[in-house]
Every structure is written in structure tokens, then in C-alpha cells.
Amino acid sequence: MEINYSTTANHLGSSAVREILKVTQGKNIISLAGGLPAEDLFPLQAVSNAYSRVLSADSSVLQYGLTEGFTPLRDKIAERLTKQGIPVTAAEMILTTGSQQAIDLLCKIMIDPGDTVLVEAPTYLAALQVLGSYRADIQTVENDEQGMLPDDLEDKLRRLRPKLLYAVPTFNNPSGATWSKERREQTVELCRRYGVLILEDNPYGEITFDEDKELYPLSLAAIDRSYGGDYCVVYTGTFSKIVAPALRSGWIVGPSELIKVIAKAKQAADLHSSTIDQRALDELLQQFDIEKHIRVISREYRSRMKLLSAELTSRAWEGAHFLEPRGGMFLWLTLSADINAADLLPLAVNHGVAFVPGEVFYSAQPLKNTMRLNFTHTPPQLMPMAVQRLDQALTMYKESLNLSH
Asked: Running DSSP on this structure, what letter comes out for residue 46?
């Protein structure tokens, strides 16, 4: 039978990252592709103990729960965010099934087909997928490693009257870049002036490579709330990168009236996120020193990033360059202009290494000589071999270019 799909379904795209993971799974391939944290750093015993305690204490952990999420857990997250400069209450927050669902729910209640949404370039692939599924008109604001360029941002705010601005200003996925304090302040000021909502996606912000937190600029949400009055920044975060992805525990923070509408959308989607996962996470935060754990994984990820950086530098590929990120999980590599990373990928997989071609992180006019490299999941002892395999694939690719000419 021929299935007559909806227009929305026909606009759904698959994730290039997930497709690459399918190709590499179960094979002798070192994957620098997925945005995966290090499994050897998961707090396995602490998580196991938390689940054991909640299961033995109260059978209500297996019951339905509030759409907004387990209140004690929301209170704890609100307390952590307040310490990070984002004063918030549980009433301004809803717990979601990972921050990915938070992006989807906000777009569901905000975006009609044809509505303009502003993004940076490159930006998070799965956010582009969500925006595409709601048939948004995605427009790129010119930017550099310091953030969005204020003149171009104001021009697009004035001309295009966008519904939303989406950004990952701290340890961007995929580029690893962090916006400067000045650009953050300018972006918030302009969006407040033009009445445009910002979705600040911050899944990586706590993975910092400088232990002095004062060296990092405030979040857009913190800057926004310093004005007082109405807020223009909606903020989303997750425990996926600092505890474990399988918990699927994220949150979205915004004006209480917006949260009420998001709650209606979430009720229609899944009623609520997993009660037992929320209760276990709440227990974990009571019994486990998560701040110490974040410091441990941050130090290890910094070490792995430095190792990847050194290996790439030693290759001295003509025309290649990158900036070391100050945190997060990704390094953005730009190759010489004659390289198409998407064409390079099959050769790399044949040589036993995988990456994500940079072109998938653009809504338009992609830079095809770029790639995203994840440094957190690969064991340190395999990093030199990963770069060696990439070097071999690149050599073969360049030889094929010479033959074709």
C-alpha cells in the first residue's frame, strides 16, 4: 500500500551523524564523528546506587508524573542555574527528554511555515533538522569566532522580522567557538530592542578547560536577566554530557507563561519525561559530588583535545588550520580549499577513521573543506592512530585529485 505522508513528514531529514554512526558501528573504525562523551568516565556506580535507592524506597517512582517534571529536581537545577548567574525558579522550567526535545517543543509552539529563524554558521545539525521539519525560513547571520556580527544581525532583525534566533554561543557544536562578552551583550541588546526571542542552547557550557570560571563570559540568559523585566532568552541545558546521555534528562527555562504553553505541547508529545530517570537523577545530585565529577571530565577532555591538536599540528597539511576550543567536545578543522570533506569521508572510513563533513552544519553556502572532530570519546592511546589514518586517506584523496587533472 502506498502511504500518503504529511507535508511535515516529507520535510523530515535524517541526521548525517547518525548515518555515519550506523556505518562505523561494529567495525574496526576509530570514530571522531559522534558527539559522544567518554564511557570510561560515566559515574556508573553512583548512577547504579541512585536507581537502587529510589526503587527500594518508594513504588511511586514507577507511576506517572507531572508534565513539568519532578519538582525537587527542578528546584535543584534552578539552584545550580542561579549560581551560574541565571536566577530562575521551578515555575520557569520544564524538564524534557534531553535538550533536543526542548528545541523541538519550543519550535512547535513558535514556528509556522515560512517564519524566519536566524542562526549562526556553522550550527548544530539537529537544530537545523527541527527547524526544517517545521518549514522555517532559516537565515544565517554573518559571524566569526567571536560571535554574530552586530551590523548584519541588526540588518536581518530589521528587514526579516524573525520569529526566533537560535545559537550555541558557548563551545559551539560543531566549531567549538565561544562568543566574546561584547558580542553576547550586543546580541541580547539587539534582540530585546527588536522583540525577538533567543533560544540559547548550552549543552557543553560546564565542560571548561580553564578551571577559573571567571575567564568565561556570562550566558546570554544571564545577561538578559540582568536587565530585569521581560526576558527575551529561552535557555536549554542537559545532563547528557556531564552525567550520561542515556538518562535523557534536559530542561528548558523561560518566562512562566511560555513554560505553560510548552507544557501543553509536551503533554501532547509524551505526557512527561521518565519519572524513574528524574527521581534517580535527583537522588544522584543529593549523594554524588557532581561539581567534582565535572572537573574530572573537563580535565580529561582537555587532555584529549590537546593530544588531538598536537597530532593534527604535527601533520602540517598544506592549507589546514584550526583553533583549540576552550571547552566542550569538538574541534573544527578547515582543510585546503580543494578538499571536499564529504568526498574524503568514504576514503577515511576505508582507512578506519570517521568524522563528520562540515557541510551538514550549514543551512546554506556550506564550507565543504571543513570537518568536525570529536575528541572526547576516542581513548587517548588511539588518537595518534586516528590522525594517521586520516592522513593516509587525505594523501590518497590528493593523489586522486592530481590524477583527475
From this structure: H
Residue type at 187 in one-letter notation: T
Radius of gyration of the chain (CA): 21
For residues 386 and 383, give the distance between their C-alpha atoms in angstroms, rounded to a whole number: 5
Give the integer Cα–Cα distance in Å for 360 and 18: 12
Cα–Cα distance, 249 to 99 (Å, whole number): 7
Identify the architecture of domain 7-42+292-404 in CATH.
Alpha-Beta Complex (3.90)
Report if pTM > 0.85: yes
- Facing residues of 198 across strands? 165, 233
- What does the pLDDT look like over 345-394, one tens digit per residue? 999 999 999 999 999 999 999 999 999 999 999 999 999 999 999 999 99
307-334 residue pLDDT tens? 999 999 999 898 999 999 999 999 999 9
Spell out the domain ranges in the chain. Answer: 7-42+292-404, 44-287
Among the ranges given (18-27, 232-241, 252-261, 333-342), the one the predictor scored with the smallest mean pLDDT: 18-27
Q: How far apart are CA 197 and CA 186, in angstroms?
A: 14
Nearest to 373 by CA among 343, 344, 342, 330: 330
Query: Which of helix, strand or coil describes residue 84?
Result: coil
In the structure grid, which three cell numbers stand for residue 95, read together? 524538564
Amino acid at 327: G
Burial of 372 (0-12, 13-18, 19+ CB in 10 A): buried
How far apart are alpha carbons 114 and 111 in whole angstroms?
8
Pairing outcome for strands 143-144 and 147-148: antiparallel
Q: Each residue of 67-87: pLDDT tens digit?
A: 999 999 999 999 999 999 999
On whether the 44-287 domain is CATH 3.40.640.10, my answer is yes
